[in-house]
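To whoever is on call:

I kicked off a structure prediction for a single chain this morning and the downstream step that reads the tokens threw a length-mismatch warning. I double-checked the sequence; it's 662 residues and nothing unusual in it as far as I can see. Pasting both halves so you can look.
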Amino acid sequence: MSDFDPRSTRWMAGLVLFISLLTLSILGRLYYVSIQLGPELVAAAREKVIQEREIPASRGNIYSADGQLLATSMPVYELRWDAAVVDSERLKADLAQTAKDLALLLPEKTAAEWSTYLRQQHSSKRRYALLAKNLSYSHYRKVAQTPLFAGSKFKSGLIAEERFTRLMPLGDLAERTIGYQRPDATAGLEASFHETLRGHNGKRWMQNLGGNQWKPMESSYTQDPSNGQDIITTLDSRMQDAAHRALLHTLKKYKADHGCVILMEVKTGKIRAMANLGRTPEDSVYRELRNYAVWEKTEPGSTFKVAAVLIGLEDGVVDTSDIIDTSPGVYTIYGRNVNDSHKGGYGRISLGRALELSSNTGIVKALYAQYAKKPEAFIDRMYQLGLADRSGVQIKGESYPHIPKPGDKDWFGTTLPWMFFGYGVQSTPLQTLTFYNAIANEGEMVAPSLWEATRDRGTIIAKHETEVLHPAIASKENIHQVQDLLEKVVIRGTAKNIYTDSLSMAGKTGTCQLNYWDPERMGYQASFAGYFPAENPQYSCIVVINRPVRSMGYYANIVAAPVFRDLAMAVYRMTPQSSTPAEGYWGDGLLQAQTKGDREQKKRTDAALQALENGVLPDLKGWPASEAIALLESHGYTVKLRGNGRVKKASKQNKTVELDLG
């Protein structure tokens, strides 16, 4: 009987056919993958191992005008640990000493805590355990030298990830002015000069060694990185430090919310110091939170009176000798009262004296009569003085001034008279200082600047040039009248408490109510704007203190003016004097003696004038007879003389003065 089975033959044939089809399918797939997809897969694989990667450019540095480094880029390191690559024997041998070393190097954990932490990470075979962040290179290398982490990363598991961060070597000095450039926010000079500082990244072929570690394949770049250029600011680190300290002291003393100080070079507009300090709500520590000097616009208060008086002088509608009766210290317009801080007012005084004493009623009475029927004339002149313009300083976010006009929704019957003493208008501290700087600069208004120069690899490629905004905001005659009044503010006016024989100063106080329409939010702002030395201005300065505690003091002469004086004295002491005067030592000595004598005579004359305006006979002892006679007769007195020479004694009876000479 035959063993042949047809069913077995069919089964075998089917199996052979199946295997043949499967083989053909695999061969076809291999052909497709190797021939059709091969180049793409090879390229993808190569991309994972070899890439043309970006090489970051080094960001440029920011320097002060005196060469101090204000901002620079430094590498910092984040340390991670691949615990899975460390064998148990090594962990056992090196753990104790490493934990002790880490407790010293990274003291956020004790030695026992580090020991427990490292054991846990090793037990869990963690591949990316965090050890530390933001370490300097030297700090990172010390960690890498501890027993457990010493050697190659394939044995120690230590992973160091480098990134660059922006550091400010002088700490919080001018921090807000320097600013920052981040993906989510920008501020200050870092933002304004980002394109200059950033440079351009390069490219280079690199090989992946695993663990996101890349090694250059060639010594050359396919595209060279172009490092950023350096910015040199106008800031002087010593003056900035003096401004910062003076501001901080006063903010603490009066428990104010925030404040700012700006120091500017009169002729050039270069800002030598800009300090901005605010109290943090969390811990009440003062830090550079915002650039109040550039951003914050408020009603300036009495510092605006200078502009109001200058407008009246320019229009020829008032004179500083005009007599105004400020009694009883209240002037009512449309049912609202203009009040003087001095109860009862100051009696009959000149317009100039009203500015010196910051009399609201005196200023308003003098100007309102001239502009009540033509407010547009006053507003137009404000625009001509540059009071409606931004300063254009190289920091983003400068606010626009606010000047209401007839027909605006915020224009009322009381708007114009209230503008005369600094309410209704708004400006930033820097914009106010730009105006005062123009007065110090003989009427020429220059643009304030924080940029001194741009430097590329040690070579200056661009440099600051003074920009004139207005060649003459007013006539020389009227500028000189205002200069004289601002000096008298310090000698015998509201800021006489900061007068010193060591340095002549000129300026104006400003005490302004904030949120006066809301009793719960009402507060005060104290400010002082001016320049020094008064006879030859070199620097202008503004101090603004926002919301000092009222019970501790809030008037500008008490809160803000002393900051101005302290900074002015500090700058005067640190400013080098010429070793050889242009006139020679003898000529310079005579000139200094003459200047000192002129200042003393001016002080004596101003004191005598003030006494006569108050109805009191001044101390005339030692005066030349001719000067005493001229002074007394100009105020309506009849003078009788006995003897010759200088005044030895003076007596008064009604409107007659007898002078004994000898």
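Update from on-call: the warning came from a stale cache, not from the record. Cleared it. Sanity check on the structure: Residues 582-591 have pLDDT under 50 and may be disordered.
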